[in-house]
Write a structure and sequence with these properties.
The complex is a heterodimer of chains A (108) and B (122).
Chain A: E1 4-7, E2 10-13, E3 19-29, E4 34-39, E5 46-50, E6 54-55, E7 63-76, E8 85-91, E9 103-107
Parallel strand pairs in A: 2-9
Antiparallel strand pairs in A: 1-3, 3-7, 4-5, 4-8, 5-6, 8-9
Chain B: E1 3-7, E2 11-12, E3 18-25, E4 34-39, E5 45-51, E6 58-60, E7 68-73, E8 78-83, E9 92-102, E10 105-112, E11 116-120
The chains are: A mainly beta (108), B mainly beta (122).
């Protein structure tokens, strides 16, 4: 099983600041199979990034993804109030298709 | 408009059974793989099961293997999750999600239902 570790657990930043979220895999993953999701309280997850760096339909360009192998990053370039949420990475290449534990982004 | 609507969640006793359904509309259901993902109260996301567009292959998380069965009826645009031998730790909101994997783009869900709550308790 591929274990995904996300850091930090919580990120507290101000409006307009840059957020950098990390997702580390226990073994190498093809970039094709790494996705990021955003989830707000009481809502279903929302696909942000797939293929490690491709934005899903309708996702603002302040969200970007990068990385390869075992280290992946989600960057939010300028935080907006609506970006307050929990962000999960997931690998979809090898069953079980594991999620990371999530990073909570708080807007100060 | 793509819509996924889960149903079937309820309170059930430990050892009991439940069948969840996910009604799909707004896309050609038979062309897409589907996933079940669950979220225990206050916890993160846990992938539960996958079924391909044709019904095979099928994959399960170790935590549900042998107890849960995923299936689909492409004629009815519906996805199912039969859950047997339920345990307290199966208590969660269960989401169905429309997956995709082709041409270098793969993900478990670009569309998700609103979820259905399963509570396992005596």
């Amino acid at each position: 099983e591929i274990v995904l570790t996300q850091s930090p657990g919580t990120l507290s930043l101000s409006l307009g600041e840059r957020a950098t979220l990390s997702c580390r895999a226990s073994q190498s993953i093809s970039s094709t199979y790494l996705a990021w999701y955003q989830q707000k309280p009481g809502q279903a997850p929302r696909l942000l990034i797939y293929g490690a760096s491709s934005r899903a339909t309708g996702i603002p360009d302040r969200f970007s993804g990068s990385g390869s192998g075992t280290d992946f990053t989600l960057t939010i370039s300028r935080l907006e109030p609506e970006d307050s949420a929990v962000y999960f990475c997931q690998q979809y290449g090898n069953s079980p298709f594991t999620f990371g534990p999530g990073t909570k982004v708080d807007i100060k | 408009e793509v819509q996924l609507v889960e149903s079937g969640g309820s309170l059930v006793q430990p050892g009991g059974s439940l069948r969840l359904s996910c009604a799909a509309s707004g896309f050609t259901f038979s062309n897409y793989e589907m996933n079940w993902v669950r979220q225990a109260p206050g916890k993160g996301l846990e992938w539960v099961s996958y079924i391909s567009s044709s019904g095979s292959p099928i994959y399960y998380a170790d935590s549900v293997k042998g107890r849960f069965t995923i299936s689909r009826d492409n004629a009815k645009n519906s996805l199912y999750l039969q859950m047997n031998s339920l345990r307290a730790e199966d208590t969660a909101v269960y989401f169905c999600a429309k997956g995709y994997c082709s041409g270098g783009s793969c993900y478990a869900g670009d569309y998700w239902g609103q979820g259905t709550l399963v509570t396992v308790s005596s």
